[in-house]
Amino acid sequence: MNLLRTLRMGALLLLTGLTVSSCLEPPEYPETPTIDFERITSQRISDASGTYDKVTITVSFRDGDGDLGLNEADKTDDSPWARIKNGLPNPYYNNYYLTPSIRNAQGDFVELELPDPSFNYNSTYPPLATDDREAPLRGELNFTYDFYVGSPFTPGQTVRFNVSIFDRALNQSNTVTTDPITIPR
User: Fold this and answer.
1) What's the pTM value of the predicted model, to 2 decimals?
2) Which residue in 15, 31, 43, 61 is deepest, having the highest Cβ count within 10 Å?
């Protein structure tokens, strides 16, 4: 009788273990990152450096192999992420791309024209995985920018941003557009 009870208990534990392990299958995401706009916040700050708007943009991300993020050490002259490639600025030097648009008098959003074409709001985010193995990865990415009053936006302007990211394999995500915000007066 004890042997039968032991076998039943063992079979029950085995079945429970198999059921739980099947629930722990990693999700399947494409190897090209996918992002979704989550939120944008703006806070007016005045301190010793001046008055500026601290704008934080949050996007959620999913990536099938988890190869998101770069260290400064990754950007050596012979890497795919070097600042200069073939004597030209490398479009892959950054992995976070931000393009501001301003609402014009007709109510349409037009891309902000910057006085210096080499200037942009692109940036780099660090590696998001805690180890080097390939595994699906998802989460949120927050970027904060400080825009000083009157540069490049004037008080009362309505602004929104297009955002996209790259992974280490140089796969570009989709582009998302933030909700518009109005620069305080």
Assistant:
1) 0.80
2) 61
